[in-house]
Design goal:
1 helix; mainly beta; globular; nine-stranded mixed beta barrel
């Protein structure tokens, strides 16, 4: 398999387990430099935080294998679908930053959340085409994104509050790099169980919903081509964002997805073409790597949020049952303007 290299060119969660590399600005924000407090004769060189594959951190790898479409040789479900059921998560970062996944939130005022090292040492942009790694926004849309970024930590208007902070569904594609999620399969459809809602991909050939029905995750109709789940998404409500960096698609948008699974069932590559003539100057491609988590992995508070059940009464099970946490939504006072900050006592 070929490797996608990081040379090509999303607010910290309230979860204490996050060990993210945060904050460097992208094309939309300003300076990446930070003055060292070390003596001038020996300036401190910030080191890139190591990433550990399989660990609990948000970022697990900087580059990833490209999986190509082809024949499926793995196990199948009773109705003939490639069996890809299980617990999954992306491997490079959460939704703090869409085009610089390991760069943190743009304009973050906290100096302790600055990304270390040059951009090329971090994971590539989720935008794989165009090659500059940026969303090809029309000028008005780019100004809207910049305005959101400038006010994310100073939300003086409701539109500066990210929808997920209000417990809204994450939308597509953000739901695929928020927390881990579970994929289940049934005759005629594939079910995604996200941390912020669910999504059904219909495989029965029925047409899309009427145009006047709009959904946070859109309306998904799909089919299998060998090892690849091909999905067509319409009927989006245009309210979700791609990350805390503010990128978006409108209700006029159209997404064509390809979930390309490895035949060992351990990974997949997500490739999606997003089109919206009212927002973008051209269609663009999003690429997100994902890996599967099993009972052999240690549960953690981000990618693999499960509680293994090892017994039925006092009888030990041969294989543990992995029970996904039923997480309630709670607004996060750790960011979004840092509204919970307390004035120091005099």
């Amino acid at each position: 398999m070929t490797q996608i290299n990081p040379g090509r060119s999303a607010l910290v969660s309230g979860l204490a387990i996050s060990v993210m590399l945060t904050a460097a600005p992208s094309l939309y924000a300003a300076d990446e430099t930070k003055k060292s407090e070390a003596p001038a004769a020996k300036p401190a060189q910030p080191a890139t935080k190591p990433l550990k594959l399989g660990g609990p951190g948000i970022e697990q790898e900087r580059s990833f294998p490209k999986i190509v479409s082809g024949k499926w040789t793995g196990p199948k479900t009773a109705d003939g679908q490639p069996d890809v059921q299980g617990h999954w998560s992306n491997t490079i970062a959460n939704h703090n930053n869409f085009t610089d996944p390991q760069g943190g939130i743009l304009n973050d005022p906290n100096p302790n959340r600055l990304a270390k090292g040059p951009r090329e040492e971090r994971a590539p942009s989720r935008v794989s085409d165009p090659v500059d790694g940026q969303v090809p926004f029309q000028p008005w849309a780019l100004e809207k994104v910049k305005d959101f970024q400038a006010h994310f930590h100073d939300p003086v208007k409701p539109e500066y509050i990210e929808p997920l902070a209000r417990c809204a569904p994450g939308g597509i594609p953000k739901s695929l790099f928020w927390h881990g999620y579970e994929i289940s399969q049934y005759p005629g459809y594939v079910l995604f169980q996200f941390n912020s809602g669910t999504r059904i991909i219909h495989l029965d050939g029925k047409p899309h919903l009427p145009d006047n029905i709009k959904l946070w995750n859109g309306d998904s109709r799909g089919h299998w081509e060998g090892n690849t789940l091909v999905v067509d998404i319409t009927n989006q409500n245009g309210k979700a964002l791609f990350g805390r960096s503010g990128e978006f698609i409108s209700e006029n948008g159209h997404i064509q997805e390809r979930y390309i699974f490895s035949n060992d069932g351990d990974r997949y590559t997500y490739e999606a073409v997003l089109s919206d003539p009212t927002v973008y100057t051209r269609p663009f491609t999003v690429t997100v790597p994902a890996r599967k988590w099993t009972a052999k992995d240690q549960p953690n508070g981000w990618h693999f949020e499960v509680e293994p059940a090892n017994y039925t009464g006092k009888v030990a099970l041969k294989e543990p049952i992995l029970d996904q946490y039923e997480r309630i939504c709670a607004e996060n006072n750790g960011g979004f303007g840092l509204v919970a900050a307390e004035e120091p006592k005099k």
